């Protein structure tokens, strides 16, 4: 029982980690928190549905295509809608993200109406039994994909010049500009990466859940909860926060009450912000006045 | 400040206008049919909702998402108090406002811990989602997905399902609360609110307790929107959880922005302009989200200070003293 829950928690947590990570990527380079990110996740899931079910493409190439499409969308969003208002108040930027999310959601609802769509199962392989533990293909696939992605991601950040650029822009956009980095273009790129990673989160949940245009909202909250727990701006913290949230949801749902699964994330947010506002690894968040 | 301020004559004219407008509006029911009267009543409610929202995001400068939650709290409070406890509806308006204010306190209490900006936004977002969860999971009280109908009731021998009677009540509540908010913003407290927006550290150095200012603004915002919720409950006669969902949130954002951030006049304009339009879009799924989303994006890029800024350019009479300089 405990092992089974832990496995399920890791699979869910891997997705939350991915979403929190994609939010953090954008936040670190642009200081914008994408309040429309849930709908980017939703858009990824819907794109993969379109490509698999309507266009008849196999799941893996469809997933790659959907991620590329979302990368392009993220770049265009940054160039077309974020850049013109960068100098304005921060609230404007947050509102722009929200409105972009609603536009995506509106488009999804226009096309699919109020239906709930099931994605055909992708990994319809026999589950593996290890003693009492049932390991499904989906769980293996989700955890495996996220793990590989994280290794590549943190490898790139830690070992290449790109990683140094990311750190430079995070520490001081102005300093980064002074040493000749094109911060504007870097920001567009970060928006693209954030959108593509968020979309991957949507693509991974698509086969194990029902698709509807509102599915983004709950993922946004989960992403925020993971980010808050890990500490805003901390990439490793986002991943760890996501996994812990996934595990906590499973345990709370099984041992206390299944209705708690939905609100674990809110409880996390409230508790963390009241007890330790900068989370596990974040910069200090509290204003002392 | 580059804009000319109104002269004293223009100011007294404005004071007159403030009372003349609602008095003239008393005649509206003569010009409307049942359907348009219903829409006009909806506008009055939207004015309060938008005003409460613009106080927090425009005047206080804090990003917050709890507005829809306050609205839902007010509506459910009104419905539960009149359906389960048998209170006359008119009595539930201040009580719904008080519960909305309590919601405002809860949603912003993290400010006492030094939580600001994105963190405060996230905690208010969580608060809003938690309330939605609560409407659905407290079935004995809220009726769950079936919602909660308001009992039939009469006032002065007229049924409270009559839109004309409702119009007069809504108009009175809205006019009083708008005036109260204007006065509040003109007070020492109101100036403190906008000082926090411009620079919280500098404000604190003037011995103004900024966390308390933030909390109080949220509480007043919650009160306004809670009262609006009570009006809404009677307006539609049946409270459903869907009315307080994500669609209401983007509609509120759009009203605030179209009217003009942090402007009372703007709140009124935005609410009036955007209440009627979506009625025609409702038949097409997804159109409302798309419409509000596009409007918010367009206003942010092209007219960041909304319709109120156009009026201000037209005549100094529209300049509000707590007006935000265009950046």
Please provide the ordered H/E string of secondary-structure elements of chain B. Answer: HHHHHHHEEEHHHHEHHHHH
How many beta-strand elements of chain A?
A: 4
Indicate the proportion of strand residues of chain B: under 5%
The description of the largest β-sheet of chain A is: 2 strands, antiparallel
| Average of the residue pLDDT scores of chain A | 87
Given the helix and strand composition of chain B, which structural class is it? Answer: mainly alpha
Radius of gyration of chain B: 19 Å
Oligomer: heterodimer
Strand order of the largest sheet of chain A: 1-4
The shape of chain A, in one word, is globular
Structural class of chain A: mainly alpha
Number of H- or I-type helical stretches of chain B: 16
Termini separation of chain B (Å)? 11 Å
Membrane topology (chain B): Multi-pass membrane protein
Keywords (chain B): Cell membrane, Membrane, Transmembrane, Transmembrane helix
Pfam family, one (chain B): BPD_transp_2
Subcellular location (chain B): Cell membrane
Descriptive account of the structure:
Chain A: Belongs to the binding-protein-dependent transport system permease family. LivHM subfamily. Chain A: It is found in: Cell membrane. Chain A: GO terms for molecular function: transmembrane transporter activity. The complex is a heterodimer of chains A (289) and B (327). By secondary structure, chain A is mainly alpha-helical. Chain A has a domain at 13-214. In chain A, 73% of the residues lie in helices and 3% in strands. Chain A has helices spanning 2-30, 37-54, 59-82, 90-112, 137-159, 161-171, 173-178, 183-205, 215-230, 235-255, 260-275, and strands at residues 117-118, 128-130, 133-135, 210-211. In chain A, the strands form two sheets. A two-stranded antiparallel sheet of chain A has the order 1-4. A two-stranded antiparallel ribbon of chain A has the order 2-3. The longest helix of chain A has 29 residues, at 2-30. The mean pLDDT of chain A is 87. Chain B is mostly helical and 327 residues long. Chain B has a domain at 35-245. Helices cover 72% and strands 2% of the residues of chain B. Chain B has 16 helices and four strands. Chain B has helices at 8-25, 28-31, 34-59, 67-84, 89-108, 117-137, 139-142, 163-186, 188-198, 200-205, 210-236, 246-259, 264-276, 278-281, 287-302, 306-314; strands at 148-149, 154-155, 158-159, 238-239. In chain B, the strands form two sheets. Chain B has a two-stranded antiparallel sheet. A two-stranded antiparallel sheet of chain B has the order 2-3. In chain B, β2 and β3 (158-159) form a beta hairpin. Chains A and B meet through α4, α9 and α11 of A and α6, α10, α12 and α15 of B.
């Amino acid at each position: 029982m405990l092992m089974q829950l832990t496995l399920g928690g890791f699979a869910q947590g891997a997705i939350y980690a991915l979403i929190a990570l994609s939010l953090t990527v954008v936040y670190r380079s642009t200081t914008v928190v994408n309040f429309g990110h849930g709908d980017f996740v939703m858009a990824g899931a819907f794109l993969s549905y379109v490509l698999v079910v309507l266009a008849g493409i196999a799941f893996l190439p469809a997933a790659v295509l959907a991620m590329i499409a979302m990368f392009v969308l993220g770049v265009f969003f940054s160039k077309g809608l974020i850049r013109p208002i960068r100098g304005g108040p921060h609230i404007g930027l947050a509102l722009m993200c929200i409105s972009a999310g609603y536009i995506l959601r509106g488009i999804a609802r226009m096309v699919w109406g109020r239906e709930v769509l099931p994605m055909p199962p992708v990994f319809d392989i026999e589950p593996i039994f290890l003693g009492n533990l049932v390991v499904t293909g989906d769980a293996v696939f989700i955890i495996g994909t996220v793990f590989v992605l994280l290794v590549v991601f943190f490898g790139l950040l830690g070992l290449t010049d790109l990683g140094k650029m990311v750190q430079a822009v995070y520490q001081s956009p102005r300093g980064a500009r002074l040493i000749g980095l094109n911060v504007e273009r870097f920001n567009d790129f970060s928006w693209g990466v954030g959108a593509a990673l968020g979309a991957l989160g949507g693509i991974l949940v698509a086969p194990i859940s029902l698709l509807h245009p509102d599915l983004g909202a709950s993922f946004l909250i989960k992403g925020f909860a993971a980010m808050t727990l890990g500490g805003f701006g901390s990439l490793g913290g986002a991943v760890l926060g996501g996994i812990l949230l996934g595990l906590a949801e499973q345990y709370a749902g099984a041992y206390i009450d299944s209705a708690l699964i939905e609100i674990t994330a809110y409880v996390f947010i409230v508790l963390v912000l009241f007890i330790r506002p900068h989370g596990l690894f974040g910069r200090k968040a509290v204003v002392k006045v | 400040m580059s804009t000319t301020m109104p002269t004293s004559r223009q100011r007294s004219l404005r004071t007159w206008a403030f009372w003349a407008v609602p008095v003239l509006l008393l005649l509206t029911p003569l010009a409307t049919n049942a359907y348009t009267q219903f829409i006009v009543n909806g506008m009055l409610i939207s004015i309060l909702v938008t005003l409460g929202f613009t106080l927090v995001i425009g005047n206080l400068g804090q990003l917050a998402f709890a507005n829809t939650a306050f609205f839902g709290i007010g509506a459910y409070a009104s419905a539960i108090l009149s359906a389960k406890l048998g209170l006359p509806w008119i009595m539930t308006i201040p009580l719904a406002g008080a519960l909305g204010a309590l919601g405002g306190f809860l949603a912003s209490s993290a400010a006492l811990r030094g939580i600001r900006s994105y963190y405060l936004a996230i905690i208010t977002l969580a608060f809003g989602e938690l309330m939605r969860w609560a409407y659905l999971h407290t079935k004995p009280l809220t009726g769950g997905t079936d919602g909660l109908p308001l009992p039939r009731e009469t006032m002065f021998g007229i049924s409270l399902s009559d839109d004309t009677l409702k119009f007069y009540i809504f108009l009175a509540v809205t006019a009083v609360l708008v005036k109260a908010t204007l006065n509040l913003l003109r007070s020492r407290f109101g100036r403190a609110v906008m000082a926090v927006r411009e620079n919280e550290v500098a404000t604190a150095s003037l011995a103004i307790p900024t966390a308390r200012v933030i909390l109080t603004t949220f509480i007043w915002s919650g009160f306004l929107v809670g009262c609006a919720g009570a009006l809404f409950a009677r307006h539609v006669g049946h409270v459903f959880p869907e009315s307080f969902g994500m669609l209401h949130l983007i509609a509120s954002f759009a009203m605030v922005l179209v009217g003009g951030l942090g402007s009372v006049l703007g709140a009124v304009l935005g609410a009036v302009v955007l209440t009627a339009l979506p009625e025609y879009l409702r038949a097409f799924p997804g159109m409302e989200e798309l419409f509000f989303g596009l409007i918010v994006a367009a206003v942010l890029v092209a007219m960041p200070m909304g319709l109120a800024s156009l009026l201000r350019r037209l005549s100094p009479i529209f300049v509000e003293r707590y007006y935000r300089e265009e950046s």
